[in-house]
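Much of our argument rests on the idea that a fold can be written as discrete symbols. Part of our work consisted of pairing the sequence of a single chain with a tokenised description of its backbone. No coordinates are needed to read the tokens, only the vocabulary itself. The record that follows shows the chain in one-letter code together with its fold in token form.
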Amino acid sequence: MGPPRGKTIFSLALARGMRSRSAWSRSAWCIASLILTFMGVCQAPSQQVQLPRDDDEVLTPGREVTTTQLLHLRQKAENGDSGAQSMLGTMYMRGLGIPQDYHQAAKWFEDAGAQGSADAQLALGYLYEYGKGVKQDLHRASRNYRAAAEQGQTTAANNLGFLYQQGKGVQKNLGLALHWIRFSAEHGNPVGQCNLGSLYLSGRGVPKSPSEAARWYLAAAEQNLSQAQNNLALMYFKGTGIPRDYAQAAIWARRAAERGNVLGQAFLAYLYERGLGVPLDYVAAYMWYSAAAAGGNARSSKRLNDLSRVMLAQQLITARTQASAWVAEHLKASNTPSETDSVAITEQVQR
């Protein structure tokens, strides 16, 4: 069954600490290998929760929450309104208008989850998976993910699939892992699509099929999941599952890079350095290697040193000026994540 063009789930990364580049690398699942001998992965963080539809303007980042609004919301939550409970839990989890407090977040998510809120069950699963505000309990994490997934919550389905794949909180079962990841993917979740692509690429739990992997990566990439965009770029570069096309590789690497994906930035720099799919441009290569290096990519730091030896003095000045401006602007913007992602497999795409 080919990847549907399902709607993107409106979701929100839960904790500011999850936004850092190092956090993204730790939560990597979807497979992505980079040409310069470094590998990357993509995942769908269990750091994802849908916003309640009622009064969701209260949860707009940076918005002032008035005492009256907070009192009204708390009263509704205390009177048993599951939407208000879930919203209050999200506010405590992210520190929106009130001090961040995972313990209070867990309390309100427990109340909302007990009433059947799939979003609260998803969030509670995350808290138990990572031991935030509660004692870490992978079994309870899996139970909450399952409760949400059985209601059609696609992020919870993906996260539950990961737990089955890893045997965390549940008995390892690749069949059930595939079932829940496929459910997530076929219902339009981009991270589920990316992870299903990775299963097809590695042949884990399904017959190995690079062409199916490419189809699912494309579905996720078109929903702006940067890990999938980078993976797709690599498949175009290497002609894995799709015809080799350096121009398409550059297009998708750029999309990943501009969304802050460190491996996408390093890969785009490599393409500029070699003139593959884009004009040979040492200044552009230097800028993108600088962005990747600022994100912690050690290989890019080495490439910067090597490039500086072959660049003209004026080229270096221009490149360093552009790099400083880009990094300053985008590191500031990175406080607001442009996408949500959860956990995954660490297979490698063979060169």
User: Anything to note?
Assistant: Confidence is low (pLDDT under 50) at residues 4-29, 31-61, 335-351. The beta strands are 11-13, 30-33, 39-42, 48-50. The chain is about 60% helix and 5% strand.
